[in-house]
Amino acid sequence: MKPQLCSERRSRRVFLADTSMGLTGLALGTMLPRRAGAAPDGWLPPTGQPHFQPKAKRVIWLFMLGGVSHVESFDPKPVLNQFAGKQLSATPYKDVLSNPLTKENLKPFVAGQHDIRLTLYPLQSGFRERGKNGVQVSDWFPHMGGLMHEVSLIRSTWTTDNDHGAILQFHTGRHIFDGYLPTLGSWVHYGLGSMNENLPSFVVLGEPPGDCCGGLGTHGPGYLGPEHAGVVLGTNPENPLPFVSPGPGVTAEEQRREFEFLSRLNRLSTVEYPADPALRARIKSYELAFRMQMAVPEAITFKDELDETKKLYGLDNEITRPFGEVCLAARRLSERGVRFVQVYHGGAGNAWDAHKDLKKNHGDLAAKVDQPIAGLLRDLKQRGLLDETIVVWATEFGRTPGAQNSNGRDHHPFGFSVWMAGGGLKQGVVHGATDEIGFHAVENRHYVTDIHATVLHQLGIDPRKLDIPGRQRIDIDYGRAIGDIIA
């Protein structure tokens, strides 16, 4: 009798081990993930199905690194021109320093690395009413401003970190000193899984922040485990996945056989270690990596796009082309089933961090992103995708009403602007407000996890039902959906 090879022996135990490892729901976070910090053994998330009827299927998350000035973008404050150069204590608005709404958070900011700036600094850009609803927006954002009737503008967001750790805080809801916890994209992946088995469910485009500001943790899975991490992709269709490339001289057939062999070895190991989440993640990583080599280049190749679409994103202009390609790639990935596309602008240097020469800094950067982002909204709408896609524009904090280094503004977490569009949200709404000089969020205040809660609500997810045993989260982490902007 011919001896039976281990790979041919189909015991009940092997069969159960094999069938427990589906191909869906994977984000290729690490090829060799560590076990530490993963979800408890045996715990399986309720993935794949929303908890209630969703109004959206996917998210495009646009995040400007460094801290965009709210008063020179979507919340202009003409009073700053009136009292420019005056100390705050000499203006009618001196009492904002003792505003009871944020008094509890004030002391650590004053004593920290970044002091409150008391000499008011004039607006560095003009502004006017824009969009069909006449919302005041900076002249640096004419394209986005022209679409204010399509979005819900939230002018009352706040956070508690006044350094760039606020980037991590915006994505996890917790201070950077609390550690690397699951990010919003990871929660969406964990809760809903994939809509395309050939693409990761959670993709990251653009240049992520540096290690000082959360680094990979800003799109990381925390204790959810490596399967739920964001996959960083490039927008060059010739080399979008260098870490998954088969290498020179390796044919597709050779690589397929290599993956089959690795899969066979790994599956044999799962018989001995059936509950090892790191091993399951590794196997699915290899499987998805092979399929991604075909699917990803096609998703970010623009040759089949019409010239008018390319112009919409600014691909015909050297200033707007780089970020325009990122935004166009975001649309193409979204329409192919990627659940959460996280787009960074500003890179590891936190480019929007205008401690000096704010006028040049914001003027140059806004010129690079304004048309591509507006083009993305218009393109989604004309394709019928905006109704089921949530688009979020955000930054970690605003800039101080006061001056720093004579021609810049410092970090400002007390009140700043975010806008959201599509996915069952109201159009043309201005929600919340800061005071007359843009110091405090004073009306309908929203901690950053209220943005998370709104996104999850529109996706049909109840975050309380995603809790992991032993990892219960406090209430502020969940946030509360902003009912006033939900249609």
Characterize the structure shown.
There is one protein chain. With 487 residues, this protein is an alpha/beta fold. It has one domain: Alkaline Phosphatase, subunit A. Helices cover 30% and strands 13% of the residues. The strands form 4 sheets. Strands 1, 4, 5, 6, 7, 8, 11, 12 and 15 form a 9-stranded mixed sheet that branches. Strands 2-3 form a two-stranded antiparallel ribbon. A hairpin with a 4-residue loop joins strand 2 and strand 3. Helix 1 crosses helix 7, helix 7 packs antiparallel against helix 8 and helix 10 runs parallel beside helix 11. The chain is globular, with a radius of gyration of 24 Å. The termini are far apart. The N terminus is likely disordered.
Q: Could you give the distance between the termini? A: 70 Å
The largest sheet, given as strand count, sense and whether it forms a barrel, is: 9 strands, mixed
The share of residues in helices is 25-40%
**Spans of 5+ residues with little confidence (pLDDT < 50)?**
1-45, 107-112
